[in-house]
Design a protein that fits this description.
Number of helices: 5
Structural class: alpha+beta
Largest sheet: 3 strands, antiparallel
Number of strands: 7
CATH class of the largest domain: Alpha Beta
Helix content: 10-25%
Order of helices and strands: EHHEEHEHEEHE
Shape: globular
CATH architecture of the largest domain: 2-Layer Sandwich
CATH topology of the largest domain: Alpha-Beta Plaits
Distance between the termini: 31 Å
Amino acid sequence: MTDMREVCLILDGEQYVSGGLARPITRGEALDILGKAQDAGLVLQPLNTQRPEAICCCCGDCCGILGSIKKMPRPADYYASNFYAEIDPDLCSGCQDCIERCQLEAPFMKNGVAAINLDRCIGCGNCVMVCSSSAVHLKKKEAATVPRKI
């Protein structure tokens, strides 16, 4: 795969394979693709169902949906996520890696350390992956969102 900016993994896609739009991959290949997407800072977005059939790997510059929601003042209102990022200011080194990595511009600097704008945070965890001081963690929201069954 030459370009990881926007990839969609079809998990249960016999119709896509039979139509020549996809090829079967192993679980290991799927995990490798997801790892590369995560390393590239893409937002992993499964379909919002209890048994998702696809996972999109999106960039806020290339993906129409993520790019549009990024322009909204409260992107978190448009995502059914059970998590949000939280930064421990005592551990934050002020490196700003989380700010550079976030697709939705949720982290910001305040008094020399990073903080999170919860109106913008969709709980993707990209900021957690790049924090060398382990200051950023995902926290579970009190009210859980349960995806629909299909």
